[in-house]
Amino acid sequence: MQDLLHKMSLRELRLALLGIGAILIAAIAAGVLMPKVKAASAASLEVSVLEEAARDGAELDRHLQEQYAKIDELKYRLHGDMANLPVRQVEAYIIGRLQKVSWNNDVELVSVEPATGERVQIFQEILFHVQLVGHYDDLYRWLLEAREDLGYVVVKEYGLTRRDNSDEQPLLVADLSLASYRAVE
User: Fold this and answer.
1) For 90-119, what is each residue's pLDDT tens digit?
2) Does an H or E element contain 159, and which?
3) How many Cα atoms occupy the beta-carbon half-sphere of 6 within 13 Å?
4) What is the side-by-side strand order in the sheet with 108-120?
5) What does the angle CA 89 – CA 92 – CA 97 come to, to the nearest 5 degrees?
6) pLDDT at residue 120 above 90?
7) pLDDT tier at 6 (50, 70, 90 boundaries)?
């Protein structure tokens, strides 16, 4: 090694020392700076992920609100205004709605008899045997309005008979069974 040093000129020795110093400085800089560069890069990636999550979170909130609205609409379609009523009040509620629909359509609500129906999977059926008197067009409108007003009530049976012998606009007697379904608790 000393032979090598004696053979080198002063200029070559300075260049060699300068090269070794540059390599040492580069190694130290890499050891100190590289972790910081990696940390900054990771932080930048995390920030972009969080920004994307914030955008997606707002989208997710909107999507969840839409789904909750759909659930509320389906609950209304299934139970209507009576979703939170006790079973005894359901009967009074439906009878009151049927009377209102009858008055709106010039139909006489002759009788309503509540009855307990079958259990269908997780639902208990509540039956209403209804008898109406009216003209054909009035009974038709009654059914349409009842469907709109009580969309969650199903017509299970329906029968029509004539009450009089008039050829024009005869009075008809409609016997029908309506079913309402409530989840068994």
Assistant:
1) 788 888 889 999 999 999 999 999 888 888
2) strand 153-162
3) 3
4) 108-120, 123-134, 172-183, 153-162
5) 125
6) no
7) low
